[in-house]
Amino acid sequence: MVRFQAEGVRLDQAVAEACGVSRARAQAWIAQGRVRVGERVVEKPSYRLKGEEVHVEPPEERPMVVPEDLPLPLLYEDEDLLVLNKPPGLLTHPAPGVYTGTVVNALLGRYLEVPEALPPARPELVRPGIVHRLDKDTSGVLVVAKHPGAVEALSRAFRDRLVMKRYLALTEGHPKEGTLIAPIGRHPVERHKMHVGGVAPRYAETEFRILATAGPHALVEARPHTGRTHQVRVHLKHLKAPILGDEVYGRKSPHIPRQALHAYELRIPHPRTGRILEFVAPVPPDMVRAWGAVGGVWPGDILLEGYTGA
Hints:
Elements: E1 2-10, H1 11-19, H2 23-31, E2 35-37, E3 40-41, E4 48-56, E5 74-77, E6 81-86, H3 103-110, E7 139-145, H4 148-159, E8 164-172, E9 178-181, E10 184-186, E11 194-196, E12 199-202, E13 205-214, E14 217-224, H5 231-238, E15 261-269, E16 276-280, H6 285-293
Parallel strand pairs: 7-15
Antiparallel strand pairs: 1-4, 2-3, 2-4, 5-6, 6-7, 8-14, 8-15, 9-13, 10-11, 10-12, 13-14, 15-16
């Protein structure tokens, strides 16, 4: 059973977003009488919600997470860990309704052994080696543990804030520089969103610095000191400088088909030796083009994908 509240949106759209499924699948569930609005079954996908509580009973499904031969740009590998340069458009791990085409599928196909028992009723919980995640449309450095001992050590490093994360973002507006401390919780109405304040907010801290500007746009360095869902995106929206192309917290852009956010650098203690490792993922071409399209010039010390410096 999935429960949520929404207002001012179509029922099929709200169900699709809340359950992480396609609009077509949401419409099928509505037609099957699996969706109640308040106390009554509503079979009209176009019904516009007025803040009621919605109850969804998805049909029982038994999808599996299978190994896939997907390319994963590799920055580093040893016996304990992998460091990937995750392309945009790739989920880190399976989610409800999406069980293929993720980093986990690729890891099972190329690097990690398939677990002996995959829980078929909850394939979104199949996350071998995943100690942190990037949003689907965020590119950049992603660390994966290769065995349980490395999972424990790396997870502890993230939990104890022994990891330095540096993101690059293109923004619409110039955010205030410095450290922002603003707790983040679930949006009270639009449940697929996070919000400063929100429901059950948790401490969130991000340090911002403007590296360059181009008219109303800025190239921003973000260093999150906590790891809340959508943290950099939500904090930049709160500072009235949403990320270029972020359709959830800002607006669509003609210059880039996703949020212009890149996990550029990561420093982390090695899970076996404790030695600090540093990894950099060069800025991908779509962000390079987008910054140029708004009139921006990249600082000379930022590595760009495919650029040799010659």
